[in-house]
Amino acid sequence: MAVFTVNGKQVETCGDKKLLYFLREDLGLTSCKDGCSEGACGTCSVLVDGKKVNACIPPISSLGGKHVLTVEGLSKREREIFVRCFGDAGAVQCGFCIPGMVICAKGLLDNNPDPTRREVKAAIRGNLCRCTGYKKIEEAILSAAAYFRENRPVPPKPERVTVNMYYPRTDTEEKVLGFGKYADDLEIPGMIYAKALRSKYPRARVNSIDISKAEKHPDCVKILTAEDVPYNKTGHVIDDWDVMIRAGETTRYVGDALALVASVKSETLDEILSLIETDYTEYEPVTNPLDALKADAPLIHPGGNILKKEVLRRGNADEAIKNSKYSVTRKYKTPFTDHAFSEPECCVAVPEENDGLRLYTGGQSVYDERREIAKMLMIPEEKVRSTSMLVGGGFGGKEDMSVQHHAALMAWHTKKPVKVKFSRGESLVCHTKRHATETEFTTACDEHGNLTAMKAVIIADTGAYASLGGPVLQRACTHAAGPYNCRNIDILGIAVYTNNVVGGAFRGFGVTQSCFATENNINLLAEAVGISPWEFRYKNAVRPGQVLPNGQIVDPNCAMAECLEAVKEVYEKNPYSGIACAFKNSGTGVGTKDTGRCLLSVENSKIRLRTSAACMGQGIATMCLHMLCRETGLDPASIVIERPDTERTPDSGTSTASRQTVLTGEAVIRAGKKLMAELGAGKTLEELEGCEFYGEFSAVTDPMGTAKENPVSHISYSYAAQVAVLDDAGKLSKVTAAYDIGTPVNIRAAEGQIEGGIVMGLGYALTEDFPIEGGRPKVKFGTLGLMRSTDVPETEVIFVKAKGEPLPYAHGAKGVGELCLIPTAPACSHAYYKYDGKFRQALPLKDTAYTSKANK
Predict the structure, then answer these.
(1) Fewer CB within 10 A of the terminal residue: the chain, N end or C end?
(2) Cα dist. 241→376, 466, 689 in Å?
(3) CA of 463: how far to CAs of 201, 285, 301, 435, 677, in Å?
């Protein structure tokens, strides 16, 4: 019997479960989040006798006589201050890590009421944040310290909101105090738990699957195999991903599911799975895309090992290179990397009458989930209702089916509520990664440093299944020449199936890989010409009216040159500074159907803003609030923003490709104009009760391969220049980043997106890797090489504005979510080249002050 206090109340308990699960399951204190269960992430942080502890580590038997504090136990004054300070600082994005950060702040400030930034960094070092880059969390804690020290009153929120200003996020309070619900926070009476048996081998024939012993386990409710799936395929773009592998079929990677087990207790799932007997004939896996392209390579899929081939040609690159004064050819290599979002995947599926299903999910599109699950079950889409809970980060990694289809399948068969939740280990193995690539780039210029041509071959390892491999390859190719005035290009891209983990959507969407290559080549050309890398870029940067390498005419709202002007001083005054440029599209573009939608309904004298645009932390709801208030002048307190729900919110497409601010933002504006026409005519909200106002906006673009001389590939582009500065010891001291994102909708939110993206980019450049041996990942969450607060240098974000007319949509706003990390890796590579003269052609960069962290 253990006796201790939790939030001032005495508890007595037998058993020896971990403190985290006792707090969540027995006491319902869900501010403690389960991010990794290995003590690496800090999302489960609590105070034990005033000291921060990761609750996933200690068993409750070790807590006798101790005092445990969670966020729920904070005083009213503490709650008010932390909500205000984290909100004002823009410190909240996905929110999954934030209660743990608040606990760190509480533990620090109780003992040190006036900490320095360095002391704040040290206090939160044990807690990972993948979204913010830590800077705004540090500022929030420093601000809270001042509130406590000076006994400041908490002021009210502003009553008017527009664009290009700051207003606290609509979800700040529920995320800071931890009462907002993520999928794993749901508990439904009668709920059972399910988990899949995964393949032992990346490539093996499954000779047999015997579930008879497992079915006899007293906790077993049901075991499903491929024979129980009406349509045994899913796929975001191509239906090639098996729901489960049948006996007699061959596995494609170690994340393949063979059987799905349901138990009345989550803790006995592994026991039941261990009783399933399987027999395999193991084959040699194909783990290198170049091997997969060989004529005698085993076929991963019946149609061959090439998922997609892209060819992009303009002008005559071979002739231009032949006639150029200078040309450089180099090969580059980038690794798989994990999204490492704070919240592991989870879904709860609940059966409804008439064979319907209700899903509570944490993905990037409730309509994609509905479509794919209805197709798998071979039922009408209207039978599936998908509702989004809070989403603890995504970055592209929650676009595919991971747990949703398995939860739905088991609920459909058992007619019981089912929760499927990945452990962090399952998440690392099963969900998609950033594509590993091998590339060869040739870039040429004349004697004055004017770019004349570029050629590239891009080989992307798309792993076992298609996922978003085709579109990712397409962006890698269309952006491969960079934001430069280069008229002759010849780009070949091939996405190749292997038996590795699946490559899918990841922030940057292929452009991170091609940008690393082209920017490094540009540094060598500048050296050959004898001009500075800054001058070379400035000379060739695209300007309004010129033509992008893909043929699109540059809009008047392009400020690439202005971005370079903004970072010139910091680049030139530091001897070990590296520079890189990048651009990134907004919207899916290239002729695809791309629509944002919004429905405003007046209910109980409130405006309910309804859109399915998913927020994984980027602040979609707050963006919509800014757009609507800017259009109508309404008090934000009169607006309620609903979560995505296929029954309530119109389909606004997947949250991907930095598209929602432009497309859904414009849809909100259009709906707002209709509402304002009624309010402007003198009607009150009471008089408009029950009325609805619909807004829709579609981006019109041209498909790849069009015969048009100057196609419109994407509705808009954002531009950036970054400078990474090393100190004399070879450690990063500062990153300065200038961004053209049009009109920032919410200043601090835009800064926070960029700061977080920069830190993610620094990890990609210096410390992160996802080693795979023989098709098997060799990594844990704590060894991914994620940057912590004390690793992060000073960051400076500069917003620049084009001299020409802004984008005529969304009040001139453009996307920022993906662009923010793209130039970081090549900027770091260039800085180290200037530091030690070593030209590095692979990520993560070797022989740096961070190499030991990358190799852990």
Answers:
(1) N
(2) 11, 8, 46
(3) 14, 11, 11, 8, 52
